[in-house]
Design brief:
The structure is a homodimer of 208-residue chains.
Chain A: H1 7-25, E1 30-31, H2 33-39, H3 44-52, E2 58-59, E3 63-65, H4 66-76, E4 83-88, H5 92-99, H6 101-105, E5 108-115, E6 124-125, E7 128-132, H7 136-142, E8 147-150, H8 154-166, E9 171-174, E10 187-190, H9 193-206
Parallel strand pairs in A: 4-5, 4-8, 5-7, 8-9, 9-10
Antiparallel strand pairs in A: 1-3, 2-3, 6-7
Chain A binds a DNA duplex (22 and 22 nucleotides) through helix 3 and strand 2.
DNA sequence: TTGTGTGAATCCCTTCACAGCG
DNA sequence: CGCTGTGAAGGGATTCACACAA
């Protein structure tokens, strides 16, 4: 039962959910597609189209119930279950991600941390011990981890990816600047800040 | 003289450049659109279309000269000059970004770091002193900084953004999860890892 | 012959506009 | 009434296919 939905549509759903949560905290009970759009940097028609793919969540002449639509979106985005995440790479990026509270708030629990540096292995980060990356497969399957964040150097990342997918990881957030080869059924999202900066300098250079 | 080019097209140009640099290091002198596409996860036609917007860089029956096309792309992306960058926020994310060597390698120089925490102000990071964010406007204009990376808490980010744009910053990489209001002529790129993770969980939930 | 550059065709996403429900 | 849900129209972006240059 897989819906064909564009990447950008999914990102918009995410934004709607964030907006709804803000509205909820602010005490709003209802919201129109118009209002939701204005606060999510899109159009009313786009909001309605995006939602219509998954069902009818509004009442005509009224709008959407904030609480109800929020619950629906969490369901659509797969956020009703907490997700068990492995953080692979305990360097600068790994450390920043580990400390970041925004993940936990959304139900992403970092339940294991790995590194290959003997000086780091065995150290404690919060409640977690940094594991030897050699034990990746065992720990990932023991702890039933579904998502891995790869914050390792580019030379190491494909090897780590292979282990992770063998251990049953199905989703990956990859910080290394390479296109990973993955088996069918594994989804990768690349994060590449240099590309973001370059799209910025492109815009700046075109400005004159 | 501004070309209307989609965000995703620019990201592809960035990828082509990276691929070309790899080919260059591997000693390749020429490359076809076919080869470039295969290594950049797109199609030959797409490569040719993307490039055709900016000129004719290839030779028929031959392909593209790696060195030449690389130079052209660096020009298009605005990477022939080094860019002076301010890092605002010396917390976990800021620290990870400061240490990241990938920026410097592409000509992005972090020439000033700011924070509002008195315990951090005055400390040295590498060759830089952490400045009081209150001095943002002066330092940014003195050092002729064009780009700011905003790694500050969500409550503070709009205020910092306002100061930065008053000081002449024209491009911003924003890590806070809010849509910034900016004056005409300022470009913002948002980085939001929670959204990336949510597009991952969406894909995983759809999988069954 | 090979592989680019590019109009034409296609596909997909966004916007329009309105019927119809609450 | 007011605002959703949705077919139809419109606009971009991708892919096709081929004339043509090296």
């Amino acid at each position: 039962m897989s819906k064909k939905i564009s990447e950008s549509a999914v990102r918009r759903l995410s934004l709607y959910l964030r907006t709804l949560e803000e509205l909820d905290r602010a005490g709003h009970e209802a919201v129109s597609s118009e209002q939701l759009a204005a606060r999510s940097a899109t159009t009313a028609a786009q909001v309605r189209k995006d939602l219509s793919v998954f069902g009818s969540f509004g009442k005509r002449g009224f709008g959407y119930t904030v609480e109800e639509l929020g619950r629906a979106l969490r369901g659509i985005l797969g956020l009703t279950q907490p997700w068990r995440v492995a953080l692979i790479g305990a360097g600068r990026i790994g450390s920043a991600l580990f400390e970041y509270t925004g993940f936990a708030r959304r139900g992403f629990q970092i339940v294991a941390v790995f590194d290959s540096d003997p000086a780091k292995i065995g150290r404690k980060w919060g409640d977690s011990i940094i594991h030897d990356v050699a034990k990746l497969e065992r720990v990932v399957s023991d702890k039933d981890i579904q998502i891995a964040i790869l914050a390792v150097p580019v030379e190491a990342v494909q090897g780590v990816m292979d282990q992770a997918s063998r251990a049953g990881v199905r989703g990956v957030l990859n910080f290394a600047p390479v296109r990973l080869k993955v088996p069918e059924g594994v989804t990768v999202k690349d994060v590449n800040l240099v590309i973001d900066l370059e799209s910025l300098t492109f815009a700046l250079s075109q400005g004159f």
